[in-house]
Amino acid sequence: MRKGAKRKASQRKEADTAQDKQQESKKATSRAKRVKASVPESEPEYFEDKRNLEDLWKAAFPVGTEWDQLDSVYQFNWNFSNLEDAFEEGGKLHGKKVYLFGCTEPQLVSFKGESKIICIPVVVAVVSPFPPSDKIGINSVQREAEEIIPMKQMKMDWVPYIPLENRGSQVESLHSQIFILSCTQRRAALKHLKIDRVKKYEYCLPYFYQPFKEDELEQSTEVQIIFPSETKPIFCEFDWELDELEEFTDKLIQEEELSEDQKDAFKEFVKEKVREAKKANREAREARKKALQEMSEETKAAFENMRFYKFYPVQTPDSPDISNVKALFINRYYGKAHEVL
After folding, report:
1. Are strands 307-311 and 339-340 parallel, antiparallel or unpaired?
2. Mind giving me the DSSP string for 92-123?
3. Is residue 100 within 8 Å of residue 179, measured between CB atoms?
4. Other CB atoms closer than 10 Å to residue 234's CB: what's the count?
5. Angle, to 10 degrees, between the axis of helix 263-294 and the axis of helix 245-254?
6. Closest Cα to residue 204, out of 277, 276, 155?
7. Which of 101, 308, 334 lies closest to 216 in space, CA to CA?
8. What φ, ψ does residue 292 adopt, rounded to 5°?
9. Which residues face 151 on adjacent strands?
10. Cα(10)–Cα(219) distance, rounded to whole angstroms?
């Protein structure tokens, strides 16, 4: 082969080799880019499963709590796992028909080194084969008389509580054993209500009628007096067994609570209130006696076997220590709980 032909063949071979190297370099760069662009797989996120009765305590309306205090009730991460556990096997409420209502107790407690008044949420569980009452009591120092009215007048009623795992089921098919006292009054609509109507919600107490226990009102000999005086109303309590009306009135005059020219009008006012109270006591005793006579043995047994359990939040790092403020007392109608949990 001629020298010129050999030189041309050698040049073509060198060109082919260089081209192959260039292509290999491009491929390697492309692979490197692809590797660099790929995002490493992240660790899977795990979310704690919601407990089946986790929102039960919130579902029970906190009866008697001031509307403007409702938000403060939920400022802490309160834990009612004790209430949830009570429905588990071996718990106080397992397998029983239970009616729940909420309330709040303002208490001075310590949290993170600071003492302040906190609205502590409480849940009362009533074990009963039927609703403990369909009425609400309305009472306060400012109101002249106590009212016992159907709870539906205050847009309240006992409704079935649906556990989280059953939220997709028809209510009728669940045969619920847990009922909560619910309120359908919307906070946004309060501005359209009269002040007295709004205040009624703050004075509400779940009512309970115990036919075997004499009501303290029937035993009471005291009357609340709110006398419309010329300057300012006179608030006082008069006991018709312990107080003598003449002396009682003279003392108010001496203390300049009552003027001399209103003495007779005040005495007549007190006498009328005493007559009303005595009549109410008498009618209550007669109504209790009649109710017992007409009550079936099954209903009597149900009342005798009713149990009240009072649940406070359990202690957690996210909530105040309330261990020193727990009490058996529920309200003036229910009296004391059988047990605090």
Report:
1. parallel
2. TTTTS-EEEEEEEEEEEEEETTEEEEEEEEEE
3. yes
4. 16
5. 130
6. 155
7. 334
8. -65, -40
9. none
10. 125
Residue type, 29: T
pLDDT in tens, 276-333: 888 878 887 887 788 788 888 888 888 888 999 999 999 888 888 888 889 998 888 8
Locate 154 and state its tokens: 């205050």
Amino acid found at 245: L
Question: How far is Cα 180 from Cα 158, in angstroms, rounded to an integer?
Answer: 5
What is the torsional sign of CA 256, 257, 261, 266? negative
Place of tokens 């949420």: 121
Take residue 166 and report the two structure tokens written for it.
């059953």
For the chain, how many residues are written? 341
Task: Output the CA angle 35-40-46, nearest 5 degrees.
Answer: 170
Compute how many other C-beta atoms are within 10 angstroms of the C-beta atom of residue 321: 11
pLDDT digits (tens, 9 = 90+) for 189-245: 666 677 777 778 888 888 887 777 765 555 678 888 888 877 778 888 899 989 999
**Strand 156-160 versus strand 307-311 pairing type:** unpaired
Structural tokens at position 234: 């006179």
Q: Are 63 and 206 in contact (CB under 8 A)?
A: yes
In the structure encoding, which two tokens stand for residue 70, read together? 């409702």
- This prediction has a pTM of 0.66
